[in-house]
């Protein structure tokens, strides 16, 4: 007998738990010692991809056999992962009822069925559950009365589904990580609640909202312990978007992507975007160490009236996707970033048809303090060698006393001669930093 077979079942099951359940069960044919080891598994990872060649009936029979033959009384399931595509819901509810119990700690479901699968109500009062991940065709619609929710141990919740209810979020008193992706595919009969209140205990929030059909959208992010934020909201021209955000003193990393599929038009025929919302979010995020803004978001800052950037005393990394380059906008931003070490700019002209002016004030004449004392890395993506872009590169190389690397990504449609002339012209610009390396990426 091989040496690994002498190990106790607890260790063997721990090893097998890292394998897909089908492979773990197949070890039963190795020898008599292994014949029943898999029945003590408390971690099941079942994916119907491994059964595509043998058909749906084979997959259903496999899952039924696993749940029926394992030693459920002595070794209750602690982690259950199920990924499958089916034409009908049966027998998924039966499987879930067999899995949900007082020892379940982690549940992952990714289902693709013709009719959305309703979760058993018992899952909402599973006191041992620490992580719940629901994706694709899973319904949380229970009519006018959503079931009672009490998940006192749940710290991780990921929902990539069509609808959600505030009652679910409010029943998670210690939730730390929330990933919520709302799709614009609400099933007939489902009631989507346009106002969502995020739990205050959150440390990490990823929120993507594509429900553009609603006339009024209200999102409340009153989460003072938040450290990570990825916020993407896509609204339509008929939507009124309201986002309330608290002050985030512990913020480390923030990504903002606020956009509209079709802009409102004012009396002059000009687009009206979320020009007040984005400055409010920046004010709430002023303690972050990394800030990334997508092009539609920075466009709101371009058109915001009399907007003054908040003071970013801890910001180390800034990533800006801008609709077009504007020196005054960039310098005003840099003057509010006192300890910035890394700056990335990407031009995204293809996103827009109409150019627009920057409404902000003229920046101070002195060089931003971060540029003279802290900025070590600068990256310019989709560099087009416009006059103001070249002027800023010159300004940066002359004012950046501690720069280590400047990386220029040349626009891809330049011919070889144009690229050579750009590299030659930028390479001869004097640099204040003696250790600054100028790199070009084709």
From TrEMBL:
Which positions fall inside the F-box domain?
A: 1-55
Q: Which domain of life is it from?
A: Eukaryota
| InterPro entries in the record | F-box-like_dom_sf (IPR036047), F-box_AtFBL13-like (IPR053781), F-box_dom (IPR001810), FBD (IPR006566), FBL13/AtMIF1-like (IPR050232), LRR_dom_sf (IPR032675), LRR_FXL15/At3g58940/PEG3-like (IPR055411)
Q: Name one Pfam family in it.
A: LRR_At5g56370
Query: What is the protein's name according to its record?
Result: F-box/FBD/LRR-repeat protein
Q: Identify the species of origin.
A: Arachis hypogaea (Peanut)
């Amino acid at each position: 007998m091989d040496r690994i077979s002498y190990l106790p079942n607890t260790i063997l099951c721990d090893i097998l738990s890292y394998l897909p359940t089908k492979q773990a069960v197949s070890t039963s044919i190795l020898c008599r010692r292994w014949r029943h080891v898999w029945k003590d598994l408390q971690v099941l990872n079942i994916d119907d991809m491994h059964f595509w060649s043998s058909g749906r009936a084979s997959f259903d029979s496999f899952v039924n056999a696993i749940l029926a033959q394992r030693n459920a009384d002595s070794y209750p399931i602690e982690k259950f992962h199920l990924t499958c595509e089916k034409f009908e819901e049966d027998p998924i509810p039966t499987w879930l009822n067999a899995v949900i119990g007082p020892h379940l700690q982690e549940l992952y479901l990714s289902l693709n069925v013709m009719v959305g699968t309703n979760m058993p109500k018992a899952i909402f009062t599973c006191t041992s559950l620490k992580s719940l991940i629901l994706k694709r065709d899973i319904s949380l619609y229970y009519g006018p009365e959503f079931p009672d929710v009490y998940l006192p141990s749940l710290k991780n919740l990921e929902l990539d589904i069509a609808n959600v209810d505030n009652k679910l979020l409010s029943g998670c008193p210690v939730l730390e990580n929330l990933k919520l992706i709302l799709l614009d595919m609400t099933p007939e009969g489902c009631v989507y609640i346009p106002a969502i209140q995020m739990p205050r205990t959150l440390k990490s929030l990823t929120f993507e909202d594509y429900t553009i059909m609603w006339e009024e959208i209200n999102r409340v992010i009153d989460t003072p312990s938040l450290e990570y934020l990825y916020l993407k909201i896509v609204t339509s021209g008929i939507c009124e978007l309201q986002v309330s955000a608290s002050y985030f003193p512990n913020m480390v990393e923030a990504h903002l992507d606020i956009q509209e599929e079709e802009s409102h038009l004012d009396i002059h025929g000009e687009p009206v975007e979320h020009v007040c919302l984005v400055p409010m979010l920046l004010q709430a995020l002023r303690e972050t160490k990394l800030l990334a803004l997508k092009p539609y978001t920075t466009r709101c800052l371009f058109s915001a009236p009399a907007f003054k950037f908040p003071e970013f005393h801890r910001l180390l990394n800034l990533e800006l996707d801008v609709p077009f380059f504007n020196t005054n906008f960039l310098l005003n931003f840099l003057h509010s970033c006192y300890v910035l070490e890394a700056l990335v700019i990407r031009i995204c002209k293809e996103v827009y048809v109409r150019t627009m002016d920057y409404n902000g004030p003229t920046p101070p004449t002195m060089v931003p303090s971060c540029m003279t004392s802290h900025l070590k890395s600068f990256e310019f993506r989709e560099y087009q060698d416009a006059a103001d872009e070249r002027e800023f590169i010159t300004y940066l190389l002359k004012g950046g006393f501690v720069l280590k690397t400047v990386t220029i990504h040349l626009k891809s449609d330049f011919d070889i001669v144009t690229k050579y002339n750009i590299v030659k012209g930028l390479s001869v610009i004097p640099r204040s930093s003696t250790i600054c390396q100028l790199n070009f990426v084709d």
